[in-house]
Each structure stands twice: as structure tokens, then as C-alpha cells.
Write a structure and sequence with these properties.
Layout (H helix, E strand, L loop, with lengths): L8 H12 L2 H11 L2 H22 L2 H14 L3 H13 L2 H18 L2 H19 L2 H4 L25 H16 L6 H21 L5 H42 L1
Helix pairs in contact: 1-11, 2-11, 3-11, 5-10, 6-7, 7-9, 7-11, 9-10, 9-11, 10-11
Length: about 250
């Protein structure tokens, strides 16, 4: 599924295109294709933040906590073990390590540019969600109301869910930067399933409300759209143009 053809088709095709187009063509291409991918994600993230502030200012948490109470009263040992493992694997420290190791592996087995693309998408997608936490400052579900929660949390950084945001960033980055176009739809389907599993686990363990994980996935996906647009229309054309100029200079 991962596109790793000899001489890396990902690099080769883009270099050929860069040799054929000049800076003016690149400017026209950016203005034509960037469009909504620049401003729509920002609007979506802002809307997610506003929604969080509205939810925090109402008593909606009293309704949502009932879901968490019910889930903690009907826990299964096997499911709890999986949810606990997810809680550890997608925590901020471990998530950073996973992203770093994955980037290094991509750089070794593929190309540095592909690794940079992956890292860019992951951290822009993740970061676009992280900025909302200190702004909204929504309290976590009250652990005292829950029945033996697997992973109770305290504090006011519940909205949006960081675990869900990172899972969304990681899975979408893999699907969009490492998987060939032929298998892209399947990769996105699997990524969606993975995101739902992580999101559900965060509610199951009593660490988040349903709206927290929904916001995390939404804001992260929107930020991923923004990151992909910037890479495709600005960063990659610049890299290709610089490479084309270097190649032309070497031939003189």
C-alpha cells in the first residue's frame, strides 16, 4: 500500500513537474487550488472553540455525564484493558515519541522530504487542536460521580480531547502522505475506524465527554486539511523549484 517505487515516484514526478513550471506558473497554481483549504479549516477550528465555550457555559455536562456514568457501570475487563492501553499509547509524551520515531523510519526507508511531509501534517493537525484547550478550559468529568473509572482525570483541559486529536492527526497523516492513491480510500476508511475507536475509549475510561472527543477529531481533521493545503500549494512547490534550479545550475 505504501508507495515506494524505485527512485521514489513521489520524488521523481514532482521534480519533473518543477522543471516544467516556473515561479509564475506556481503562483497561478497556488491561487487556483489553495482556496477553501486555507480559510475553511480556520473557520472550523474557531467554530469548534466557540462551541466549547458555549457548552462550558451551559449545563450540558449534566446530560453528558450520564453517558460516562453508564459506561463505567458496564465495563468489561478486556475492553478496559484495551482502553487503558490506548490511554497510555496516545498520551502527549508517548505520542510525541511515536511521531518522532515514525518520522525517522520514513526518512530512512523512503525520503527526507516524505518524512518532513508526514511530520508537518501530524504536528499542524495536532497543534491546531491543542491551542483550544487553554482557551476553553472545560473541566473534566467528575470522577466522584463515575463508577470505578479506568482512567479518571482532573483539571480544566477536557475540551477538546488531545488523545483523539493526536489519533486523528497520526492516522490521517499516514493515509495522506504514506499510502498510494490506489489504496487511499481504504486507508482513510481504516483511519476513520481508528479515530472512532480512540475517541470511544476516552469516553469509556471516564476521561472525556462525548463533545470533547468529537471536537478533538473535528478540529484535528480541519487542521490536517489546512496542513495538506499549505504543503501542496506552498511548501512542496518551493522545494521543487529550488531543486529544479539546483539541477539546472549543475548542468551548466
Amino acid at each position: 500500500m505504501v508507495s515506494q517505487l524505485p527512485h521514489d515516484e513521489y520524488e521523481r514526478n514532482s521534480s519533473v513537474q518543477a522543471l516544467k513550471m516556473g515561479p509564475r506558473h506556481s503562483e497561478r497554481q497556488r491561487s487556483t487550488h489553495a482556496g477553501p483549504g486555507l480559510w475553511m479549516p480556520i473557520i472550523i477550528v474557531i467554530c469548534v472553540g466557540v462551541a466549547g465555550l458555549l457548552i462550558k457555559s451551559t449545563n450540558f455536562a449534566r446530560t453528558e455525564i450520564n453517558i460516562s456514568i453508564w459506561l463505567t457501570q458496564h465495563q468489561l475487563p478486556a475492553v478496559s484493558a484495551v482502553a487503558g492501553a490506548i490511554a497510555t499509547a496516545f498520551s502527549s509524551v508517548v505520542a510525541t515519541i511515536i511521531a518522532a520515531i515514525t518520522t525517522v523510519i520514513i526518512g530512512i526507508v523512503n525520503t527526507i522530504r516524505r518524512a518532513s511531509h508526514f511530520l508537518w501534517v501530524v504536528f499542524v493537525s495536532w497543534g491546531g487542536t491543542a491551542i483550544l484547550k487553554p482557551i476553553v478550559q472545560r473541566p473534566r468529568p467528575n470522577a466522584e460521580l463515575l463508577h470505578d473509572p479506568v482512567s479518571p482525570q482532573t483539571g480544566v483541559l477536557s475540551y477538546p480531547s488531545g488523545h483523539t486529536a493526536f489519533a486523528t492527526a497520526l492516522f490521517l497523516a499516514i493515509a495522506l502522505t504514506l499510502i498510494s492513491h490506489k489504496h487511499r480510500r481504504l486507508a482513510l476508511l481504516l483511519a476513520s475506524i481508528g479515530i472512532v475507536v480512540v475517541a470511544a475509549s476516552r469516553v469509556y475510561v471516564g476521561a472525556h465527554f462525548m463533545t470533547d472527543v468529537t471536537a478533538g477529531a473535528t478540529a484535528s481533521a480541519a487542521s490536517c486539511w489546512f496542513a495538506t493545503t499549505v504543503w501542496t500549494n506552498y511548501i512542496r512547490p518551493h522545494i521543487e523549484h529550488q531543486r529544479a534550479q539546483a539541477t539546472a545550475t549543475e548542468r551548466i
